[in-house]
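Take a careful look at the sequence and tokenised backbone pasted below. I need to know what the token row says about the fold.
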Amino acid sequence: MCAVEEINRNTKLLPNMTLGFHIFNAYHNDERTLESSLVWLSGQGPTIPNYSCERQGKSIVVIGGATSELTVAMGSLLELYRFPQITYGLFDPLLNDPVQFPSVYQMASRDTSLPLAMVRLMLHFKWTWVGLVASDDSRSEKFIRDLQEEMVRNDICVAFKQKIFYDVTEDNDYLSYFLKKLFCSTARVIVIYGNTDTLLTLRFSKVPHTLLYRLWITSSHWDIAKKPGYVYFDNFHGALIFSDQTSKIPGFKHFLKTVNPAKDPENIFLQNFWNSAFGCTSEIGKGDGAVCSPNASLDTLRLSYVDLTMSDQSYTVYNAVYAVAWALHEMFLVRSELESNRNGNNSGIYPWQLHSFLKNINFNNSAGNLVVLAEKKNSVANYDILNYVTFGNDTEVLVKVGEFISEAPLGQEFIIQQKTIVWPRSWGEPLPSRCSKVCSPGFHIKALEGKPVCCFDCAPCPQGQISNQTDRDQCMKCPEDQYPNRERIHCLPKRVTFLAYEETLGMALASIAASLSLLTVLVLWVFVKHRDTPIVKANNRDLSYLLLFSLSLCFLCSLFFIGRPSAANCLLRQTTFGVMFTVAISSILAKTITVVLAFRATRPGSRSRRWVGSRGPISLVVFCTFIQVMLCAIWLLLSPPFPDVDTHSDPEHIILECNEGSLIAFYSVLGYIAFLALGSFTVAFLARNLPDTFNEAKFITFSMLVFCSVWISFLPTYQSTKGKMMVAVEVFSILSSSAGLLGCIFIPKCYVILLQPQKNTTKFLKKNPIS
């Protein structure tokens, strides 16, 4: 009515003509739709196909088709006469087929961006577990399919998917099944989509308060309008509605304020609405209410009856009426040029003649927006996000809380004013809709086999990794110089560590090494001072000096292992240790061989006497040491040790250490020492019971047993420790094995030399051998 009145007042559009309209009921089955279409085509009398009983006021275009089903049902008949049919319902790609529906024009914008808009809303509030409800028709199926694809791309899962039918309330079993499915679902958010007629049956059905605990997302084509006094409508309180953006039509509010059935008594629809809205009757004595006031105005009504802003569907109808008017205007202009004498008479107008003008029509409506009916020029819709709010006094309101602009730059297309949203009464605040609980920082998502991606367990982050956000798919590794805190939420800087002199362990080992080295020097001094006594002279005095000197250096070489690793001490620590221990062990081997040769030299005619002197044993020590020196030289030339950083062994520390370079060379040095030690132990063990007055083979056997025990224990312990403790194990092994040699071989002799000098004589020893 608003558009028709504006056009009839416009002197520049269809001048000297009056635009009118007929209103017919649209039914929801094919038979009644065809019947209604035939009544419209034939006139108000009996329906006679191919005949028209209307002599005046013939219609030349149909504006209708709130649903695709109605459009198709009417089109099957209207297409026979090539009647233009302009639909104001949701855009349907199937109706855009020019071969199948050449006379159908769609006013609505394409809603291909609606699934994306709804998914943006879900992502904003982190709703990842959503139910889907749709009417049973092909268009709704396509929408749900597109919505699911967009949800999958954004890791949002479908909690359930359910169709509803036009007569759902009449089928109690199906309604019970639907409500049970809704009740059992853990989804708090449900998208509902479909044609108005099907959803009306759910809207006005007396369903329990199962719906009350859900938030509904829908489009404005599900016309939420409160039925007065209808308590179940609170179930949809707080719903979020995506409505096609419309522009403000100048004069529309004035039209609503001034419209009155008294001005248009033939409009029975307006009269019936007026009587219902104001609770009055148009005539005295007709009905129970009072007579309607002639000054009544729609702007005094609640939203339950009328919205003073034009809805998106009304906006589409408004544009459709103008499109017809402009098409007629263009057609008459063309005719006036061809035939100057028409006098504005439209008796020669046929509906099919309007197609060429409708296909090419484009104009700016009164709001300044461009309107185009060309089949390939339908723009993509933009949406206002409306919040549906109901009140206890039977009033309701739609509040704009956001918008979605499909053509806007990425990240700016979705706007929401969260603070202005009124949530369902059981919420009070935006609640999550999830299949699983939130994985807090320090945990990551662990997928469950056979479950949707939204249903998962939360597993702690692995060692060395963190997650500082909720619902992380994977944890992040800390940089090499950092480590996770106990909660594995953020990384902390690692502390640099090594076996330092300043710490207790390093200080203790250094003190022990220095003390034992000093003790060895004292023993050497005692032996030098009493060099002419029988005990000192026994088993080659020079070898004893050499052994004590090498043991003193063995204790001191352990200091290379303490302190911050540098290139110099990394090169010296293992090679010095290997050479000094080789000197010590080869000296012991030479002393043991000396015992055997000394025993054989006592036999008459023995050739072993020439080997008992000091030159032979010293030569053996030099030869054995030379082999070790060559091994160390090859090691240093080919793959020398170097300072290194270990960031993996200790999760909380960066360990400064010496990389041995070549493990083969390192274990070759140790293996050679082990070979000499095994040889010394074997010879000493075999010679322990030789009947010689000065036989010290028993002491050597015991000392080598201690030495071998220490280093056999060293290998597994060394491999199982990391960082500075590994260094401490090697230092301890060096000190304990060296101390074992010193204590087992020389302490008993020092005891006799210092505390029992009377026993340190040739006469006493011949009577009481030290063995």
In short: The CA atoms of residues 458 and 534 lie 79 Å apart. The longest strand covers residues 396-404.
